[in-house]
Amino acid sequence: MTFLDQAQEALTQGFDTARGAVSGVAMEQLGFVRGFVRLCNDGWDQGWHERNGGNLTYRLTDEDVETARKFFDKEPREWTPMGVEVPSLGGAYFLTTGTGNYMRNVAGNPKKNIGIVQLNETGDAYRIVWGLIDGGRPTSEFPTHVMNHAVRVAATDGECRVIYHAHPTNVIAMTFVLPLDSRTFTRVLWKAMTECVVVFPQGVGVVPWMVPGGADIAKATSELMKDHDAVVWAQHGLFVSGATFDSTFGLLHTIEKAADIYGKARMMNGGSDAFMNTITDEGLRQIAKDFNISINESYLD
Ligand code: 2HA
Ligand code: ZN
């Protein structure tokens, strides 16, 4: 079933029909919900979301909240402590995937697999106001996402809205054969494909293997997110942020493609990373200059 077929099926199943009939639209038709659902489906198509792997959150604009409010539950559900405190995002609303839910099922039934949650004013608890029906809960990485939204909002002057976590094969494979430091990974990825330095001029951060879903991985990631918009989780996947669904998906896609090229080049080279041809540091500087981007100099020789 194609994405459009799934979207059509979702609509014909009659989500929010009563309220939709009054307003002419359903929650599932709002632009930010469609963008969110499309990203989930695209990630599934790429093979980055086996079983319930990966998660996605989007921070709603004030305008999104106003257009979505008429679809919110009449009685919001109970407040749930998050285990982290993020006062700078107190009162914010997020669209989030649900814990245990599969990305491949999102387009067919958004209301069950994703939901909108509101943070309390102190930013240490949330409540579900739409979706995640049948007892669903936000992603197990929700505290990690919220902490990192706060860091990226501060780093981007409020531009960042999307945080996306996936399990892309080639990035994960890379974490078995390279030293787990941000400089090494950044240089390999920048040199694997010419446009990489344009797409992620600040480079990528790397966190060593850690237990997922806890406060430690949230803190380690948010330290690196202060000056990177992408962080590799060793033997696990990628965690990226962006202003739009397109730029966030595109960032993860670009990093994964570069990792794929690097792996193939090593295989063609008998396993060695001593390549006959490569992009020089001078070449990377030249791209930054010609494209007028500020590149993280500490990752260059
Ligand atoms: O949502 O990917 O890291 C499942 C995960 C946890
Ligand atoms: Zn994961």
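^ Dihydroxyacetone complex. The first helix runs from residue 3 to 12. Residues 106 and 113 are 5 Å apart (CA to CA).
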